[in-house]
Amino acid sequence: MPEEQARYGIIRLRIRDVTQLFNSLDPDPFIERDLDDDAVDYITSWAREVPQKTPLKLVVDITDPKQLLDHHEVIAGAIRNYFGQMMMLAGNEFRQLMKRGRLSLVIGLTVLAIAVALSNIIAFYTQSAFARMIEETVLIGGWVAMWRPMEIFLYDWWPVRRKRKDFERLRDMEVEVKLPTAAA
What we know:
Helix content: 55-70%
Number of domains: 2
Distance between the termini: 21 Å
Order of helices and strands: HEHEHHHE
Strand content: 5-15%
C-alpha cells in the first residue's frame, strides 16, 4: 500500500451504495448520468492537492451495495464520461475565450489607432493647454481600449486551460472499487 501511495495520488471515496455517486435529479441510466455535485467537488478538490505529474487513482469503498452490478465498470465508465464531458466543455470555453480575445484585440487596436491619429491631429492644429489635455485623454482612452484583450491574452486563459487539463487528468485516472467481501 505505501508503494502504491508513492506511485499514485490516491483519492478515497466511501459511499453506501453506487447511487450516491450520481445526481439524484438526473433520470438517465447510470453510465450517462451526471455525477453528484458533492462527489465531484470532493474528487476535484483532492485531485488539486496531488502534484500535476503524479497519476491519480480513485478508490471507491462501497459499504452497502444494493444492486447487483459490475460496480467497477459502472463507476469507471461514469467517471470517464463525466470528466470527459467536462474536459470538452472546458475546451469549448477556452476556444470561446480566445475568440472573444481576438475580437477584443481587433476592436482595441482599431480604437487605439483612431485615438493616436486623433491625438496627432489635435497636437498638430492646436497648442493650448486645454488641447494638450484632450490630446492626452484621447490617447489614454485608446490604450484603455487595449485593456481587455491584454487581460485575456496575458491572464484569463491560464485558469481555463488548467481546468481542462485537470478534467483530462480526472478522466484518465485509474478507478478501483472495493466491495464488502460478501457482496463481491
